Amino acid sequence: MIEVLKNIGRFLVILLLQVVLINKIEISDFLWPIVLVYFILRLPFNTPGWILLMSAFFSGLIFDGFINTPGITAFAMVSIAFIRPYLLRIIQGRDGYQISDEPTAGHLGWTWFFKYSITLTFAFHLIFFIALGFAQDFFLVIIWKSILSSIFALIVIFLIQLFFVKNARQ
Amino acid sequence: MRGFLAFLAKFHFPILFLILQIFSFILIVSFNHSQKTWFLNSSGQVTASIESEVSDIFKYFDLNTQNEILKQENTLLRNHLLESYKQIKRPLIRKNDTIYHQAYRYIPCNIVQASTFKTRNYLTVDVGENQGIKKGNGVISAEGVVGIVKDVSDNFAVVLPIINTDFRLSCRIASNNYYGALVWDAVNYNRALLNDIPLHVTLHKGDTLYTTGFSNIFPTGIPVGTILHSDPSNGENFYKIEVELLVDYRKLQSAYVIDQLYKDELDSLSTINND
């Protein structure tokens, strides 16, 4: 129960960060990082599949409500929520995951976290920008938007990891 | 049911994924303007091509009705053809329809029963006295002459086809206008014989035979058959001409009964003369 509340709280904080701060930064058309992915990244390992998908869907839908693009973020969020279990299986270490582990750099090391977050964040931005612009943008434009925005979003995510997440192995 | 539930339990993750993605996609294309336009345009193309394929397929199921409609229309058109009318006044100007009076009436019918292997073959059609069919009416199909109505009941009629040894019909050869009597020799259901053509006439293979209109049954110029080959018959001054019939009685389905509206008048006239 505490775990659930914690995740909901984390979602609200990230949503606030995204809506109040990051969405207001308008440097370029090519730069629209969606830090909201971090919510999916941080869901516990033992989250059941349907909760994973449903929370991805509804978090995406709520964010869509803010940016007035019904369905687009939800589509991208559900996509990466679907990828996540398979990705976790591919990049797992020799011993697999411990029950106490959380999907953070602190628990599983920066190498693992890089693989994990870069893959999902880029996948999210790619799908997000395809869904957003498939009707009018060139594919090359979509690719560039995804790369640049992913880099920015990843920097924010790494900073969060660095300063706000406790290192479990200390 | 239990199997289905087990299936759902096993694959709930991808299934839920697909459901949510479809739902998101519906949201995207229904509430985002440019995506909506794209979706409507491209899906419009896809559905239009599917629609046309499907309607192509369903057209086949509708063929019977369509044929019926076409037949009705043909009947109407034939009733309006000039050759269905008889000119009763011959002034220089055609005025209204007092000049042309309809002489032939066409009634569409279906063949409900047919024999082709006997020496006296008969067809039954699904129109009779109630539809205005009379004994002695001619029957034609789209290909050519079929036969003559022999007996009529309330709703059905028996037709004496060309392929009956009792059948006689005078036919004219298209290229030289000589006419002779068409009879059937009971050999082949799509062959008949044309008699009474004198030996001095030049015949061409493939030449068409037409009705003469002498018998007051058929209008002039309904095709009957084509000349297959001809021999001088033994010791006579006439050819023995083998004719290939245009109507294939084995696959005949629908026909038209021709009502000669002046038949009574013409018949009574010839009876007076014969007396």
Secondary structure blueprint with pairings:
The complex is a heterodimer of chains A (170) and B (275).
Chain A: H1 2-21, H2 37-42, H3 49-67, H4 72-91, H5 105-108, H6 110-133, H7 139-164
Helix pairs in contact in A: 3-4, 4-6, 6-7
Chain B: H1 2-10, H2 12-31, H3 33-61, H4 63-80, E1 85-87, E2 100-102, E3 104-114, E4 123-125, E5 138-140, E6 145-152, E7 157-161, E8 169-173, E9 179-183, E10 191-195, E11 208-211, E12 223-232, E13 239-245, E14 254-260, H5 263-274
Antiparallel strand pairs in B: 1-2, 3-4, 3-14, 4-7, 5-6, 5-14, 6-7, 8-9, 8-11, 9-10, 10-13, 11-12, 12-13
Helix pairs in contact in B: 2-3
Characterise the protein shown here:
The complex is a heterodimer of chains A (170) and B (275). Chain A has helices at 2-21, 37-42, 49-67, 72-91, 105-108, 110-133, 139-164. Chain A is an all-alpha fold and 170 residues long. Chain A is globular. With 275 residues, chain B is α+β, with helices and mostly antiparallel strands. Chain B has 2 domains: 2-61, no CATH class; 105-274, Thrombin, subunit H (Beta Barrel), CATH 2.40.10.340. In chain B, 32% of the residues lie in helices and 29% in strands. Chain B is built from 5 helices and 14 strands. Chain B has a 6-stranded antiparallel barrel with strand order 3-4-7-6-5-14. In chain B, strands 8-9-10-13-12-11 form a 6-stranded antiparallel beta barrel. In chain B, strand 9 and strand 10 (191-195) form a beta hairpin. Chain B is elongated and about 100 Å long. The N and C termini of chain B lie far apart (90 Å). The model of chain B is unreliable at 89-95 (pLDDT under 50). Classes of the chains: A mainly alpha (170), B alpha+beta (275).
